[in-house]
Design brief:
- This protein has a domain at 73-109 and 117-253.
- With 273 residues, it is an all-alpha fold.
- It is globular, with a radius of gyration of 21 Å.
- The chain has helices at residues 7-20, 22-36, 40-65, 71-75, 81-102, 112-118, 122-152, 155-168, 173-193, 197-213, 226-272.
- Helix 1 (7-20) runs antiparallel to helix 3, helix 3 crosses helix 7 (122-152) and helix 5 packs antiparallel against helix 11.
Length: 273
């Protein structure tokens, strides 16, 4: 069923929703703003918040109607607790290392002012840390990565293409630079574990950490600082080791699965004899 879907059409619908939902958001905010003398900054914040929530909810509804998104398919196959913990810890470690490297460059953040308002509300948390990861992982990993993997015949073909699309659609330069390597990590985790719940949880964890740490006044890390270099080396090493362990677990599981299949086949042959 999935192979017959038009991935490009679904992607365009998903992207269109991100903009079309600005219309109902404006219709909701405009009369309230006039009645309460809401500032332009507040209008922008609430417009962005309502647009985000509506777009993600409608996206999930469409994915459900197209049978791309089912709770059973999201959590199955259920990964081991060990795999989930290593995935989240490894993903966050590598994301932190990417953030340190990105902080060394003066990359413009076009949405910084709008995001500040979102990062101080419960609804902002729901939109950024729960709904956005769900919607984006279904679209980018469940639909695009899987389809590109099938079409190219290569896992890395699917991962790189879906990661490039994920980065481009963010538009904001500061997010694009981070999104591409982050998407490669999320895509690899999905491909190796076979469970969409893994990248969803890693994505949610990353956004949640960013949500809460953004409210602190910590300075950007500088590589000339020995402590920063030590943290970068430690997070990179920890992340890569954990990813290696996840891949090792996958190879072990595949080997056991193959052995079980051979035993089952052998037993069936003996029964026939």
């Amino acid at each position: 069923m999935l192979k017959k879907r038009k991935t490009l059409t679904t992607l365009l619908i998903w992207l269109a929703l991100q903009f079309l939902c600005m219309i109902p958001a404006f219709l909701i905010i405009f009369p309230i703003a006039k009645a309460t003398d809401m500032s332009m900054e507040e209008r922008g914040t609430y417009m962005t918040l309502i647009t985000l929530i509506l777009a993600q909810l409608l996206s999930l509804l469409i994915f459900r109607l197209l049978k791309y998104f089912r709770l059973s398919e999201t959590v199955k196959p259920v990964p081991k607790a060990k795999t989930l913990i290593m995935s989240v810890a490894g993903g966050i470690s590598l994301f932190y290392a990417i953030n340190i490297i990105q902080a060394q460059f003066d990359i413009p953040d076009l949405l910084e002012q709008q995001m500040e308002g979102l990062l101080s509300s419960v609804w902002g948390f729901i939109a950024i840390c729960i709904l956005a990861p769900l919607s984006e992982e279904v679209m980018m990993r469940r639909i695009i990565l899987k389809d590109m993997w099938r079409k190219t015949g290569k896992m890395w073909g699917g991962i790189l293409i879906s990661s490039a699309i994920f980065a481009i659609i963010h538009l904001n330069p500061a997010q694009v630079v981070f999104a591409f390597p982050a998407a490669i990590i999320l895509g690899w985790l999905y491909a190796v574990t076979g469970s969409l719940s893994v990248p969803i949880l890693v994505h949610m964890a990353n956004n949640s950490i960013a949500f809460f740490t953004s409210q602190t006044d910590a300075d950007d890390p500088v590589l000339s600082d020995p402590e920063t270099m030590a943290v970068l080396a430690a997070t990179l090493a920890a992340g890569l080791i954990l990813m290696w362990l996840i891949a090792k677990e996958k190879r072990k599981a595949d080997l056991l699965s193959g052995q079980e299949a051979e035993i089952t086949e052998s037993e069936e042959v003996r029964e026939e004899l």
